[in-house]
Amino acid sequence: MKKALATSALGLVALGAHAQSSVTLYGIVDTGIGYQNSSTTLSPTTGAASARPSPGGSSQVKMINGIWAGSRFGLKGAEDLGGGTKAIFQLEQGFNSATGAQSVSGLGFSRQAWVGVTNGSFGTLTAGRQYTSYYTLLSPYSPTTWLTGAYGAHPGDIDSLDTLYRANNSLVYTTPSIHGLTVSGSYSLGGNAGSFSAGQTWSVAAQYLYGPFGLAAGIQRIDNAANGGTTWNSTTSNNGSQPAVSAINNGFQTAAKQQRVAVTGGYAFSSQWDVSFAYSNVQYAPGVNSFFHGTAIWNTGGAVLHWKPFTALDLAAGYSYTRATESNGITSAATYNQFNLAQYYSLSKRTGLYALEAYQRANGQTLAGNGRSIIDATASIGDAQNGSPSSSRSQVAVGVGIIHKF
């Protein structure tokens, strides 16, 4: 149950007669059990446990957390400034419900930390650590909505349609909806001496809603402050939660720039059936210090069918296909076919049970983590397996859990 805390109850200074202020405490706790038929540790030099796929790999059963929705707690609030304008803020911290640890070590509010103003006629401007415009407007139709990012994100979350990437030092402006059209732009300052653009992140996106139909498109660009040669982290890309690194893109971590262009959309046939789709083009461009020499490109397409047979039950099935380009000496480009199923049963408005099943098949070749050696591509389902890809071409993952929202 969300708890609205009146400002007066907090014992703060009394506000003017026209002003109203509130703060809401909220959160999610999500814990379960997961199984992988093949699990290894992602090597920063080879890109997988071995350069050549083996028949099996080690199966693993483990406690999982934040699979359906990341475990978190947060505060958000608004103050009426008059004239239709409000001051707003949000502070949100992720945590591991299996261990109690922070989801990102050293960050007090790893998921979001921003403040801003909003007006129904002029739009919303916020500043701080937050999601980019690209993610915010495209995400309603991403595969993660019903398949989760952990199991259902496009392989390795290469196109950042899950919540893994949040940009520090960001300014985000979003227009009000005008005849169903919303436009947003975000810019994250690099803060590097001698170069305004080094380490910056920027994105632009638009979303259009018309009855049961929705469509969104956007572009996101992230610059490495070191112009290549240094792997992505909080100093090279000014984010604190780097764009996802997995067996899919491990060999290209020293890129000077990352660019994502994507289109997502959906259509609701009825209150029981809806379909969503997503297409993305992702490019990693080398810099003067990068270990690879040619731009790496991945194209991904996928769709999700969602069915709600009755009020308490949601079922979904999805498929995605990712193909890399032939570059950097690779003549057999890597491909990834991923299949997903999801089931969610509501015990109440705040508590639910879920089950997830996924299979991925990888083919072709990619670069090892050293950015030079060519190795066989290995499977890595969604983004929960980014640090533990398969040792072979195939991977199966199954998870069950319980989630409670307050």
UniProtKB/TrEMBL annotation:
Q: Tell me where it resides.
A: Cell outer membrane
Q: Which UniProt keywords apply?
A: Cell outer membrane, Ion transport, Membrane, Porin, Signal, Transmembrane, Transmembrane beta strand, Transport
Question: Under which name does UniProt file this protein?
Answer: Outer membrane porin protein
The record's listing under SUPFAM superfamilies reads: Porins (SSF56935)
Q: How does it sit in the membrane?
A: Multi-pass membrane protein
Q: What is its main location?
A: membrane
Taxonomic lineage is:
Bacteria, Pseudomonadati, Pseudomonadota, Betaproteobacteria, Burkholderiales
Q: So which residues are the signal peptide here?
A: 1-19
One Gene Ontology cellular component annotation held by this UniProt entry: pore complex
Q: Name one GO molecular function term.
A: porin activity
Partners and quaternary state?
Answer: Homotrimer.
This chain's source organism reads: Paraburkholderia ultramafica
A Pfam family that this protein carries is Porin_4
Q: Where do the Porin domain residues begin and end?
A: 6-363
- Gene Ontology biological-process annotations: monoatomic ion transport
